[in-house]
Amino acid sequence: MSTVLTNFETWKHFLADRVAQGKQAGLSEDTISNLAFEIGSFLDEKVDPKNGEERLLKELWDAGNDEERRTLARLMVKLVSNS
């Protein structure tokens, strides 16, 4: 996954593909958002940001409470779904 994370556009395309696969598999928007939250939690704990966009997302994630982090995860799903 480290190759995917070195470029933010690559990360967005990767996430968009996973979201599309989830929708095709019949996952609900809530389930996809919950998975995005879990991925965000994992990345926050285990992965050092590789670029400015990821650094900003980490700082927003760290500043937020649980509800705000869930909102950020939903927004990321919405961002890649609309692109």
Task: Compose a concise summary of this entry.
By secondary structure, the chain is mostly helical. 81% of the residues lie in helices and 0% in strands. It is globular and about 30 Å long.
Largest sheet: none
Query: What fraction of the residues are assigned to beta strands by DSSP?
Result: under 5%
Per CATH, which architecture?
Orthogonal Bundle
CATH structural class: Mainly Alpha
User: Structural class given helices, strands, pairing?
Assistant: mainly alpha
Q: Taking all residues together, what is the mean pLDDT? A: 92
How far apart are the first and last residues' alpha carbons, in Å? 21 Å
Reading the helices and strands in chain order gives HHHHH
How would you describe this structure to a colleague?
InterPro entries: DUF3243 (IPR021637), Uncharacterised_YmfJ (IPR024702), YmfJ/YflH_sf (IPR038292). It comes from Paenibacillus cisolokensis. This is DUF3243 domain-containing protein. 10% of the residues are buried. The protein is 81% helix and 0% strand. The longest helix has 18 residues, at 29-46. The two termini are 21 Å apart. The chain is mainly α and 83 residues long.
Describe how the helices and strands are arranged.
Blueprint: H1 2-5, H2 8-24, H3 29-46, H4 52-63, H5 66-81
Helix pairs in contact: 2-5, 3-5
